[in-house]
């Protein structure tokens, strides 16, 4: 749910801003066609991805985030400037040492099973997250610095940390930090799978799930605690909403154009012109938060242990040209490891490198890769300049395998680099990573706070550090950035991180900023993206115009 | 008679065991282990790994895990899905009916169409059959959807919701079957019509259509029934694509997801189920031979 401010006028402004902020999009919002918000009606939304789990604690698929907030809510929510707004908590205080976060909770909230929401419920949720065999990744990453949770009174809860960690706020605004009824936590038959048995506090209740087909939500009539940027208050407009799982993009588009569904997400570049050309439909794009889709250089061995070769690879590639070849004009080129919508994004990196074949060739000459073999590839001491990119097929999306082929052709032509793309199963990919049998690693992460992604990817002991780059100065910057509570201080620290990683060390080749698209019938109002996360919003703001 | 049935059942069980074991060995031989698969592309630390190993008892040797699986499977317990965190029986149980419904509907459609083709338009069969067999079901599905759902709005695009939603998927899946069956039928008919009994029938003054339907068709059916038994396996495999295109629930989607994520308990259960279906179908085909051909009944 793109949680806009209350009035319609500002709603229009915000929508326009969002659209302007994206690479392109349909002009204006679709509020005009759908008219004033009205209560009632039902919608069908065709989505690409069926969730593996409906338990928000187990959340791992950014594509399913739009479903989470229908049923569940968190203590805080993100605004669109990197800050936080009250939700189930009315506010919070941080102790001067940054190790105690005290939350004041709303007292008028009940879960859909009738259980009261209070401080004990918050503690029950954290206890569950830390329980053995429940959510090991959350316990090891988001809650790694949590010491204990104290219930001071029914409406006050204190999170005590072992060391300062501002990312605890990000966690408490995330699906993994969403609040499940303590009664469900104890009684649900398949707790980790979630579903109708798990009660939340959200504006809808998940009442029917048909695996492989659809999930159905009904309005929660008692709902009256929307966050301030939700666009309205009280119960949701829609009586009910069905999300149908349609994996094939052409089928989603056909279902929309034939009026069988009113909304779809995941519109392929090739179909965007069709949507835009259809009078009754609108198209919106939102850039995701987190880290950009980038290639990470493995610095553990040759050839990318040499910064000159890393720079050369970046110079050899004309990123806009390959993006245009694969995604037409719909992709947004990335310049940093941090996404361009993040408050920490360093805009000064733009146009500082890339698309300079002459420089690439000079750098490679300098690094000793001077000779060429019969096929035109560069060699050094008789060894060809070969680099391997291993992609795990189940996780390839956005046609990243095709993009890799375009990169392969480009660097061969411009600098004689032999890029070998291996599209393999998950087991083979994991083995290649464990054995260091790769020179490039590709990844994007949808964390709402880009710092969370950087800690995993860039920290010397980070659990997804595939560069093999270990640098005490970088670790210190990342540590300081999560120990600092003020936004300006964090921005400055992350600017230094980006300078070090992108400019000085050339550890990363950023390619594009991942995005989501929504195409909708113009009779649907309130269509938009969730602030900060940049993924399609929940159904709370949607209405069906007459 | 009873010994024959017992022998049949014993052989069926042996097939199930062999299929499950082969699948188990194949997954064991695949690169990466279960822990890798569960970690996926998420955060990966020794602590997280230790918890996963503990949760699913992966510290036991492969042989012990295999024996444990067999023992539990013998008691009807297929375990829990690593990925979906639900009992395998629940994961598969809810998806079995839509897949079977689709497979049966497609088989019926395929048989009817093949018979029509073979009897009424024998000369067309070979070309039409070749086109149908060599067109990927994915393409057939998209084309059918574009015309009959997106353009004409006759059928809904997706889901397991009544007869209307079954029509297009069943046609998509049934067309290639019809192509193959029609070829086999036509071949059988041509041969039967050259037999002396066809000449005799004609000499008795029977019309050509009578010769075809009353005499030749029975002869042509035998290889076609064999073919149909085989194509039921193709149908089950074909549902993978058809279910994806039409957004239908079913085993195909479950299987793809389970294989991609090395969800061992689900993969094994699907393999056992598929093997069981094959055993049943083969038995039914054998019985059908007896019905069709009186010569087999006597011996």
TrEMBL record, chain A:
Domain Solute-binding protein family: 85-460
Keywords: Signal, Transport
Subcellular location: Cell envelope
Xref: InterPro entries: Peptide/Ni-bd, SBP_5, SBP_5_dom
Keyword Oxidoreductase found: no
Residues annotated as signal peptide: 1-20
GO term, biological process aspect, one: peptide transport
Molecular-function GO term, any one: peptide transmembrane transporter activity
Listed GO CC annotations: ATP-binding cassette (ABC) transporter complex; cell envelope; periplasmic space
Family from the record: Belongs to the bacterial solute-binding protein 5 family.
Protein's name in the database: Peptide ABC transporter
UniProtKB/TrEMBL annotation, chain B:
Assigned keywords, A-Z: Cell membrane, Membrane, Transmembrane, Transmembrane helix, Transport
Subcellular location, record wording: Cell membrane
The keyword Transmembrane helix is assigned to this record: yes
Pfam families in the record: BPD_transp_1 (PF00528)
Transmembrane segments: 102-121, 128-150, 162-182, 221-246, 266-292
SUPFAM superfamilies: MetI-like
PROSITE patterns documented for this protein: ABC_TM1 (PS50928)
Bilayer disposition of the protein: Multi-pass membrane protein
One GO process term, biological-process aspect: transmembrane transport
Domain ABC transmembrane type-1 span(s) in chain numbering: 92-285
InterPro entries reported in the protein's UniProt record: MetI-like, MetI-like_sf
Transcription listed as a keyword: no
GO CC, alphabetical: plasma membrane
PANTHER family referenced in this protein's UniProt entry, alphabetically: DIPEPTIDE TRANSPORT SYSTEM PERMEASE PROTEIN DPPB-RELATED (PTHR43163:SF6)
Family: Belongs to the binding-protein-dependent transport system permease family.
Protein name, UniProt field: ABC transporter permease
Species, as recorded: Actinoplanes siamensis
Gene encoding the protein: ddpB
């Amino acid at each position: 749910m793109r949680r806009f401010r209350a009035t319609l006028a500002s709603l229009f402004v915000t929508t326009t801003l969002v659209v302007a902020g994206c690479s392109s999009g349909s002009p204006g919002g679709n509020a005009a066609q759908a008219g004033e918000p009205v209560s009632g009606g039902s919608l069908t939304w065709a989505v690409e991805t069926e969730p593996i789990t409906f338990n928000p604690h187990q959340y791992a698929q950014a594509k399913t985030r739009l479903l989470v907030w229908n049923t569940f809510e968190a203590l805080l929510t993100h605004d669109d400037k990197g800050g936080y707004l009250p939700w189930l908590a009315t506010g919070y205080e941080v102790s001067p040492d940054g190790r105690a976060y005290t939350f004041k909770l709303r007292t008028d909230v009940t879960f859909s099973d009738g259980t009261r929401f209070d401080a004990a419920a918050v503690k029950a949720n954290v206890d569950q997250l830390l329980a053995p065999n429940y959510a090991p990744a959350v316990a090891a990453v988001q809650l790694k610095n949590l010491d204990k949770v104290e219930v001071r009174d029914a409406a006050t809860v204190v999170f005590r940390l072992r060391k300062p960690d501002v990312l605890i706020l990000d966690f408490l605004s995330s699906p993994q930090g969403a609040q499940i009824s303590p009664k469900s936590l104890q009684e649900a038959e398949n707790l980790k799978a979630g579903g109708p048995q798990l009660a939340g506090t959200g504006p809808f209740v998940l009442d029917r799930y048909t695996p492989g087909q659809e999930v159905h939500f009904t309005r929660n009539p008692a709902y009256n605690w929307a966050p301030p940027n939700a666009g309205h208050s009280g119960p949701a407009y829609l009586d009910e909403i069905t999300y149908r799982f349609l994996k094939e993009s052409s089928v989603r588009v056909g279902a929309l154009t034939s009026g069988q569904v009113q909304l779809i997400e995941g519109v392929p570049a090739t179909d965007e012109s069709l949507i835009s050309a259809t009078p009754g439909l609108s198209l919106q794009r939102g850039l995701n938060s987190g880290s950009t889709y980038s290639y990470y250089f493995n610095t553990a061995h040759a050839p990318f242990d040499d910064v000159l070769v890393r720079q050369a690879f970046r110079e050899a590639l004309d990123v806009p040209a390959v993006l245009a070849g694969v995604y037409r004009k719909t992709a947004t080129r990335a310049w940093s490891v941090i996404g361009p919508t993040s408050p920490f994004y360093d805009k000064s990196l733009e146009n500082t490198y890339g698309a300079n074949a002459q420089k690439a060739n000079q750098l490679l000459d300098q690094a000793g890769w001077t000779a060429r073999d019969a096929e035109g590839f560069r060699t050094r001491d008789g060894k060809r300049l070969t680099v391997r990119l291993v992609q795990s097929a189940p996780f390839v999306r956005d046609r990243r395998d095709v993009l890799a082929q375009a990169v392969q052709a480009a660097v061969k032509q411009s600098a004689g680099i032999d890029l070998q793309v291996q599209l393999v199963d998950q087991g083979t990919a994991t083995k290649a990573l464990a054995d260091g049998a790769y020179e490039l690693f590709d990844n994007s992460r949808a964390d709402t706070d880009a710092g969370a992604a950087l800690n995993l990817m860039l920290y010397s002991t980070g659990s997804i550090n595939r560069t093999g780059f270990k640098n005490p100065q970088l670790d210190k910057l990342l540590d300081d950035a999560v120990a600092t509570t003020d936004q300006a201080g964090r921005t400055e620290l992350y600017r230094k991180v980006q300078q070090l990683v992108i400019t000085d060390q050339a550890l990363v080749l950023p390619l594009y900023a991942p995005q989501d698209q929504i195409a909708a019938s113009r009779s649907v109002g309130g269509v938009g993206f969730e602030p900060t996360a940049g993924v399609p919003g929940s159904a709370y703001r949607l209405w069906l115009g007459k | 008679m009873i010994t024959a049935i017992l022998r049949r059942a014993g052989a069926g069980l042996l097939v199930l065991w062999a299929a499950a074991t082969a699948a188990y060995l194949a997954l064991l031989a695949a690169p990466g282990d279960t822990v890798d698969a569960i970690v996926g592309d998420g955060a990966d630390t020794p602590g997280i790994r230790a918890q996963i190993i503990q949760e699913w008892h992966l510290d036991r040797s492969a042989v012990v895990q295999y024996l444990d699986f067999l023992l539990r499977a013998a008691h009807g317990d297929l375990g829990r899905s690593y990925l979906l965190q639900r009992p395998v029986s629940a994961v598969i149980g809810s998806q079995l009916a839509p897949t079977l419904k689709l497979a049966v509907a497609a088989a019926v459609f395929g048989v009817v169409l093949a018979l029509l083709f073979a009897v009424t338009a024998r000369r067309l069969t070979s070309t039409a059959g070749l086109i149908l067999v060599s067109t990927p079901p994915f393409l057939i599905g998209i084309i059918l959807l574009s015309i009959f759902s997106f353009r004409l709005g006759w059928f809904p695009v997706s889901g397991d919701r009544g007869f209307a939603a079954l029509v297009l998927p069943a046609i998509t899946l049934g067309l290639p079957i019809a192509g193959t069956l029609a070829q086999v039928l036509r071949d059988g008919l041509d041969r039967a019509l050259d037999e002396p009994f066809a000449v005799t029938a004609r000499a008795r003054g029977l019309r050509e259509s009578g010769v075809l339907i009353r005499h030749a068709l029975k002869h042509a059916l035998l290889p076609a029934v064999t073919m149909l038994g085989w194509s039921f396996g193709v149908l089950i495999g074909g549902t993978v694509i058809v279910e994806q295109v039409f957004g239908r629930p079913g085993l195909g989607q479950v299987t793809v997801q389970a294989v991609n994520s090395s969800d061992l308990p689900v993969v094994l259960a699907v393999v056992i189920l598929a093997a069981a279906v094959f055993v049943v179908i083969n038995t039914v085909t054998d019985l059908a031979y007896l019905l069709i051909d009186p010569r087999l009944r006597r011996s």
